[in-house]
Amino acid sequence: MNYKAADDVLLYASYSQGFKQGGFNGRPLANADEVTQYAPEELTTYEAGLKAQWLDRRLTTNIAAFRSTYKDIQLTLNQTPTNFVANAASGEITGVELEMVLRPAAWFTFNAGVGYLDAKYTSVGEGLGPTQILPITLRSRFVKAPEWTVTTGLDLTHEFASGGEAAFRADYTMYSRIFQDVANTPIITEPGYGLLNARISYTLPNKAVSLSVFGTNLTKSLYLVSGNISGAFGLAEDSYGRPREFGVSASYRF
Question: Which among 83, 65, 88, 69 has a CA at the least distance from the CA of 12?
């Protein structure tokens, strides 16, 4: 449902339902009892928000609040050699997102945003076969669901008398703690990190050719993007994000 309270103010609310199909675990390790099935995952989501423009449309603000309830959450357990999918009984995600874009002049744009996420289990399943145990409790947190996300960035442009145009873009994103596995194992948990990227571009007067120089992860953040742990083998694996990089690019528009 949408309601336009004014020319530059929009209120909205939504309700949706969805599901992820079930399946079975077809790779038994010890015996046929490990060929188990798991139920479909069901989701119900509510969202409400406000989208508005202010100061003669120089300022845009968007805010959204949402709540998602899960039934029979499908959890993937990568605990080599026992890898399987099982259902946690239920869970919920509650969150708020706020975005702001400021354009005080045609050559300058600034954006910022913050997101808060509370993702938790409300009840816990018991696993499936004899070796398929869910290592979670009601205090466990969701995988890949940081509590806080903060973004900010700016764009600067300048058009020369010749018709060419220069542009500069910088952005910074910060994430709070991220769990890499269902068990929230500390040794493979990312405590939080930030990424700074920047790009300088020049577009030739013909508007067809653009040249750019860019850098990513300029602060050389060392951060984890995934992890896996196997208690049976006494093994923990981590995959790290890309290091600081620089590059050049060219594009032709036709």
Answer: 65
Angle 93-151-221 from CA coordinates, rounded to 5°: 100
In tens, the pLDDT along 47-58 reads 999 999 999 999
pLDDT score, position 80: 73
CA 209 remoteness from chain centre: 33
How far apart are alpha carbons 96 and 50 in whole angstroms?
A: 12
pLDDT in tens, 194-238: 999 999 999 999 899 999 999 999 999 999 999 988 877 788 889
- The SS3 call for residue 158 is strand
* Cα–Cα distance measured from residue 205 to residue 129, given in angstroms and rounded to the nearest whole number: 67
Question: E strands along the chain, which residues?
Answer: 2-6, 9-20, 23-24, 37-38, 41-54, 59-79, 82-105, 108-123, 148-159, 165-175, 193-203, 209-216, 224-230, 235-240, 245-252
Residue spans of the chain under pLDDT 50 = none
Q: What are 141's two structure tokens?
A: 């947190």
Whole-angstrom distance, CA of residue 200 vs CA of residue 155: 10
